[in-house]
């Protein structure tokens, strides 16, 4: 179910955003009146999108965006009457994906939503790829260290690698798990 979280301390703005997002195809739209509620709801419902005001009581939209980014990552579009350079920079550093200045029209919000969702998906994909590469590199380092231990015990490099491969197949373990075991035994 496509869920969006709309956060603004003005009910009329929330209604306008909600109607726009319904036309865009969101099936469930949850509303909040301040940044603290936004963070709690984002963690609870894991929305596909967050559209949020900047100036709100309890917790402002930019600080809420930072918390949401850490606890329940989602594309965030800020809707605000504040367009000064400092606010825009704070929003960028908080991980906000798009920014729309009030008053707005649906024709302005929809492209911002679309860009935010697509940008978020690309960034998420890149983060996953980086993490996968980091894990692969870490595994490679451990395998090389384990191979080094076997070489010190009198095996050639190809023999050490074949022995590790055979152990992995026989025990139905990954090479990294075999390397970890060799490194523990030392």
Low-confidence stretches: none
Number of strands: 5
Q: Could you give the distance between the termini?
A: 52 Å
Shape: elongated
Helix-strand sequence? EHEHEHEHEHHH
Helix content: 55-70%
Topology readout:
Layout: E1 3-7, H1 11-24, E2 28-32, H2 35-45, E3 49-53, H3 61-71, E4 76-80, H4 85-93, E5 98-101, H5 106-152, H6 157-171, H7 175-185
Parallel strand pairs: 1-2, 1-3, 3-4, 4-5
Question: What can you see in these coordinates?
Answer:
- There is one protein chain.
- The protein has 186 residues and is an alpha/beta fold.
- 63% of the residues lie in helices and 13% in strands.
- It is built from seven helices and five strands, in the order βαβαβαβαβααα.
- It has a five-stranded parallel β-sheet with strand order 2-1-3-4-5, sandwiched between helices.
- Strand 4, helix 4 and strand 5 form a beta-alpha-beta unit.
- Helix 5 crosses helix 6, helix 5 packs across helix 7 and helix 6 packs across helix 7.
- It is elongated, with a radius of gyration of 25 Å.
Question: What key attributes describe this structure?
Answer:
five-stranded parallel β-sheet, alpha/beta, 186 residues, 7 helices, elongated, 5 strands
